[in-house]
Amino acid sequence: MTGVLGIEHGAVAYGGRPVLRDLNLTVQTGEVVAILGANGSGKSTMIRAALGLVPLAAGSIQLFGVPQRRFRQWHRIGYVPQRVGAGSGVPATVREVVSAGRLATRGFLRPASSADKQAVSSVIELVGLGERAREPVSTLSGGQQQRTLIARALAGEPDLLVLDEPTAGVDAASQEAFARALERFVAGGGTVILVAHELGPLQPVVTRAVVVQDGVIAHDGPVPQPAGHHAHPEHDHVHPHAPDEEPGLWGTQ
Amino acid sequence: MGYPVIDYLSSPIMQRALLGVIITGLVAPSLGIYLVQRRMSLIGDGIGHIALTGVGLGLLTGGQPVLTAVIVAIAGAVAVELVRSRGRTSGDIALAIMFYGGISGGVFLVGLAPGRSNSNLMAYLFGSPLTTTAEDLIVMAVLGGAVLAVTLGLRPWLFAVCQDEEYAKVSGLPVRLLNILLAIMTAVTVTVAMRAVGLLLVSALMVVPVAAAQLLSRGFAGTMALSVAAGVFSAVAGFFASLQLDTGTGATVVLTAIALFVLLVLLSPVLRRRWKPMATENGEQPEWVLESQ
Fold first, then answer.
1. ipTM for this prediction
2. What is the separation of C-alpha B255 from the centre of its chain, rounded to a whole number of angstroms?
3. A28-66 pLDDT, tens per residue?
4. Please, what is the average pLDDT of chain A?
5. CA–CA separation, B200 vs B185, rounded Å?
6. Do residue A249 and residue B40 have CB atoms under 8 angstroms apart?
7. Number of residue pairs across A and B with CB atoms under 8 Å?
8. How many of the other CB atoms lie within 10 Å of CB of B57?
9. Residue B221 at interface with chain A, using a CB cutoff of 8 Å
10. Would you say residue B120 lies in a domain?
């Protein structure tokens, strides 16, 4: 199997309860794949399994043609997790957070080169946060925090961008900035896998949609047309589940 | 009442005590900032409890209490890290048992040791900088230097792991190694601070200077620099205050740090207005648009 991501007969279970069953998915270079589905359908679990954050109960996963267990070129993957609350903990500037995204490329224990610093500056400009680079992330709006995480994923100059609900609860200006950044990334030969509840301004960029329903892939092909009030351009979906869970005494898990 | 500062400093006992307190004020916040970032502010306290068993072992066997304390504290800290990384809900109870077992074990073993005395125990629990020997000071300087080398030298990587552990994993960073290293350095910091502020108060110097610093700072590097400055200031001011007032050094240092924190809480609205004119000027569009019902 070639391609960027390959999942064969993948299955995931949480505490014995199956979440995903007999998953088969191949993503080729240059594709922009949207993984759609309702809350709890297993769509986020699917990409978390692909990245090795959730163990497979059965099946196999390949990244860039290499079995996930032996995969070491993690700098080729830029990951944008679901936004978590940035209001507590020690303050960190936009630049500090984005610089963390360069570490995979930079190498362990290596000091930052001028190319590393330049790469960080240019992705911060790319997502339109140039003037806020030295401000604490916690003072930014939700959309700007999301853009910070996207800049962090792009800082390592990845070949594959994996995004988990990148537009959930994000303001219109940030969605536009995000769509522009994504277009540039794809034009440069990048591959994108994004989990979304709905596509909004991203729809023109997406080349293929995978719909997950009750733990299985229910549709794999062209982007389904939105229906009802979801289709309205002014509609902004507010997620009923809180993105930032209360941390435990030993930190968020 | 007290004597002029210069009189204190002419005594080698005072010089060693002051140096020991300064090393603690320098090292504890530089490590504590990572624990605060991870919202594990109380973990240093737990490791301090566990270290007391090491002290008891040292006193019982006639060995060096500092050596046994650092070994037991490292073992405890690694166990705590394993519990944390598994993320089990029952981990909370496992940690409680480790911490209380640690402090009880320490008191029990000190009781069995020859020539036992409660003042001995008090010295380890609450610190006794005036008993710092030249040899103690060398050990503190070496261990403290090792902690600083890690907390400053590995800052980008430790920051990444403590800020977003899952992201760090997907980046291919050696997350497990960094976590274990941080746990070991927490244990070493506890042992370094044991002589100056005591096992029960060490955690305060890991956390309170960081809490004070982040009232003023905008970024992680800035918070680290300010918290180390706050730690050293509290250590020096608290040390001289305790001599003047004839109070426990550890407790006075910690109260100084807390006083600094409270002062900055009261002043921060004024300071922020002066330093950060940008933060309030640009009105944001609402980011959550709810549909009309």
1. 0.87
2. 14
3. 999 999 999 988 888 999 999 999 999 999 999 999 999
4. 85
5. 17
6. yes
7. 133
8. 21
9. yes
10. yes
